[in-house]
Amino acid sequence: MKLEAERVLKLHVEVGEPKHVGDTGAGKLMIIPITGGNFEGEALRGRVLPGGADWSTQLDGGVAHVHARYWIETDDGAIIAIENEGFYNQIRADAVIRATPRFTCDINGKYAFLTKDVYAAELASAGKNAVDILVYRLR
């Protein structure tokens, strides 16, 4: 079986200075505040709202676990919550942060389609205080 995917969304997420918690016993935790940004896709566009964060835990062996929770607002005023969880395997030659975003929104609203599929994402640095998140829907 071969999986195929199509890009459905690009988020440009602005972040603040990381807050280092330290060694938690499960790894070294760093909390990265999400301060804003914007997004666009074929069926929606808008802004990333401030207040979310990425909880990144550096594990042994060059792997980090990432877990971000934040929300976006579409140009027409809909609020969509996003939970994005994945890993950054620094040992891989093609090391990028890979994650699985999950969307929560009004199931009777215009964007309910986001809750009915499986998505994968890649994150790439967009400068010192930003990251671009490319979201793909698996087909």
Please specify the SSE layout and strand pairing:
Elements: E1 5-15, E2 19-23, E3 28-41, E4 45-48, E5 53-58, E6 63-74, E7 79-89, E8 97-104, E9 119-125, E10 130-138
Antiparallel strand pairs: 1-3, 1-10, 2-3, 3-4, 3-5, 4-6, 5-6, 6-7, 7-8, 8-9, 9-10
Describe the fold and architecture.
By secondary structure, this protein is mainly β. It has a single domain (5-138), classed as Porin. The chain contains no helices and ten strands. The protein has strands spanning 5-15, 19-23, 28-41, 45-48, 53-58, 63-74, 79-89, 97-104, 119-125, 130-138. Strands 1, 2, 3, 4, 5, 6, 7, 8, 9 and 10 form a ten-stranded antiparallel sheet that branches. It is globular and about 45 Å long. The chain starts with a strand and ends with a strand.
List keywords for this structure.
139 residues; mainly beta; Porin; ten-stranded antiparallel sheet; 10 strands
Largest sheet: 10 strands, antiparallel
The CATH class is Mainly Beta
Query: Helix-strand pattern, N to C?
Result: EEEEEEEEEE
Summarize model confidence as the mean pLDDT: 94
Question: In short, what is this structure?
Answer:
The protein is an all-beta fold and 139 residues long. It has a single domain (5-138), classed as Porin (Beta Barrel). 0% of the residues lie in helices and 63% in strands.
